[in-house]
Amino acid sequence: MNFILSAVLVLGAIGLIAAVVLYACSKKFAVYEDPRIGQVQEVLPGANCGGCGFAGCADMAGALVKACDGGSLEGLLCPVGGQAVMDQVADLLGMAAANSEPLVAVVRCYGTCELRPRVAEYDGLMTCSAVNATGRGETGCGYGCLGCGDCVSACNFDAIKMNPETGLPEVDEDKCTSCGACVKACPRHIIELRKKGPKNRRVYVRCVNKDKGAVARKNCKVACIGCGKCEKVCKFDAITIENNLSYIDPNKCRLCTKCVDECPTGAIVKVNFPVRKPKPAPAAEEAKPATATATAQTTAKEEPKTVNSNDKEEAKA
């Protein structure tokens, strides 16, 4: 009996000592978390896509609260929630939300199966990263889309699908949240996040080929050849030529579309612009011949006949 009582007392003492130690450690190494972080995290969509530049929504919430203490939310944006979510976060933190223009993913390649001839056959793991690791792929263009759909697999919002006819990915603007997952998944960096633009209108170069003009055109009929015609026609200094490739700065572009008409290969595309109606034939030019004919007929009718005196005498006889 004494043995059992001794064991209970010893175990109780050990438990008491352990509790005291744990309590002391919890106070010593306690990490304070601002309750606002949990509140902000509840407002965020919870996609954990990483499009904001942080590991997940929890890290984003912490960054927002920290930025709030600094006095500004500039540069922080949840691409999935957009401006509406950022406005809610700003109201919760008592800050003014910075207005940000919505972005959308664009595919900067239009080398379809018809425009980009196949020069090799790949037999291996059908992922873009694997094909890119082996070399240029099945076509002569070592910069264009590989068509294996890594971007489709990376998208959590079903915003990208492969077109079976062209072999290229297509972005659904209504579903795209500009999270940037497809941008990170593409080994050739042909997908870019660009501003949606006013009325969702955009102008960009649909090519990333850095080969010289003749080589690029040989491998793809719609490749940018770096001729510089678009740069010369642009009045807003929005276009630059670097490494034989043209690039349009969305912050400077005024959507005049002159570069689209000037590009000899069709490498520059305009999106969501109204279709131009064909110019009617000038009415003035058509009316001139008709007016001239009518004037000649009128002159002929009004011109009096001249009768010779000899003709009069013959008529009397």
UniProtKB/TrEMBL annotation:
Residues given in the record as [4Fe-4S] cluster 2 binding sites: 141, 145, 148, 151, 186
A GO CC term assigned to this protein in UniProt: plasma membrane
Listed GO biological process terms: electron transport chain
Hydrophobic: region residues: 1-26
Cofactor dependence: [4Fe-4S] cluster
Gene Ontology molecular-function annotations: 4 iron, 4 sulfur cluster binding; electron transfer activity; metal ion binding
Chief localisation class: membrane
Domain 4Fe-4S ferredoxin-type: 145-165, 167-196, 214-243, 244-273
InterPro entries in alphabetical order: 4Fe-4S_dom (IPR007202), 4Fe4S_Fe-S-bd (IPR017896), 4Fe4S_Fe_S_CS (IPR017900), 4Fe4S_Ferredoxin_RnfB (IPR050395), Elect_transpt_cplx_RnfB/RsxB (IPR010207)
Quaternary context: The complex is composed of six subunits: RnfA, RnfB, RnfC, RnfD, RnfE and RnfG.
Official protein name in the record: Ion-translocating oxidoreductase complex subunit B
Designated gene of the protein: rnfB
